[in-house]
Amino acid sequence: MLNPTPTSRERLALSLLWLTPALWSVNYIVARTAPGVVAPHMLALGRWALAGLILGIIARHELWRTRHNTLQMAWQYLVLGTLGMLICGAWVYQGAQTTTAMNIALIYAASPVLIALGAVVWLGERFSVRQALGVLMAMSGVFHVVVKGQWLMLAQVQWVVGDGWMVLAMVSWAAYALLQKKWPSPLSPTARLAAICMGGVLVLMPFALWEWQQADTPTWSTQATLLVVLAGLVPGIGAYWAYGFCQKVLGASRVAASLYLGPLYGGLTAWAVLGESLGWHHVMGALLILPGIYLASRQAPATTES
């Protein structure tokens, strides 16, 4: 029997799968511009306070109607806020101050694998050989882009303190993605992200206040405000909402592989905004990443009952 045609929600999720990493790539620009302009926790606090305010206004009626359930589940939103906004927000900006783009990309390459494995083992999702092949193809493409086609460069990678922050952020993102699926919510994606933002703001606030009191903290400027607005709207509301929606519709394991588009989109963003050059390694990486994600995002075939 032929599989039924995808629903409109699934078609939208499959489309957003390719767009979401492009929204996230804007965060590369923010992270590389922020040092000396705005402190990491203050940037993250401003980003998620702005995102939470906008999402809260949009979903205000739903949040008010479900306020009792939301308060009962407040501990979940605090945990998700810690993982997704503190560790995957401020600590990424902290690590980006001392590590290199190559190290960041190499570390984050492990995140989709952790999510896929966790989805299979912990959430009981099915993951076919075809999807596993897609993940391996996409990962190979990421490595090819990161090392610029010179695989021997992997032996020359030097690890620094900032890499420790990035490892924690990578593991935290995997936990954030899996827990969102593990903890089903009656809230819509917009209302749920607004609630998570509230949790993130609460855990970020004491760290940001501590940074504000430090003597070496940059004075707040127009550029800092622009970075907060950019981070809050594009990789904040846009990317997090789209990722949460895709994961709710498609499952954690199918969506995780889309993260491998990050280095490719990041290279395009750096070329367009920062004037960095593109090379053949980007083309070769794309030839592996794009079909790999296509294979990984396909639904695993249903088992046939006898």
Textual characterization of the structure:
This protein is an all-alpha fold. The protein has one domain. 75% of the residues lie in helices and 0% in strands. It is globular, with a radius of gyration of 19 Å.
Features:
306 residues; mainly alpha; 0% strand; 14 helices; disordered C terminus
Task: Output the structural class.
Answer: mainly alpha
The helix fraction, in percent, is: over 70%
Shape: globular
Q: Write the element-wise H/E pattern from the N-terminal end onward.
A: HHHHHHHHHHHHHH
Low-confidence stretches: 1-5, 302-306
How many strand elements?
Answer: 0
**Domain count:** 1
Query: How would a crystallographer describe the biggest sheet?
Result: none
Radius of gyration: 19 Å
Number of helices: 14
How far do the termini sit from each other? 14 Å
Summarize the structure.
The chain is mostly helical. Helices cover 75% and strands 0% of the residues. It has one domain (39-213, 220-297).
How does the SSE layout of this entry go?
Elements: H1 8-33, H2 40-58, H3 60-65, H4 67-72, H5 74-96, H6 101-108, H7 111-121, H8 129-146, H9 161-182, H10 189-212, H11 222-250, H12 252-256, H13 261-274, H14 280-297
Helix pairs in contact: 1-11, 1-13, 2-5, 2-10, 2-11, 5-9, 5-10, 6-9, 7-9, 8-14
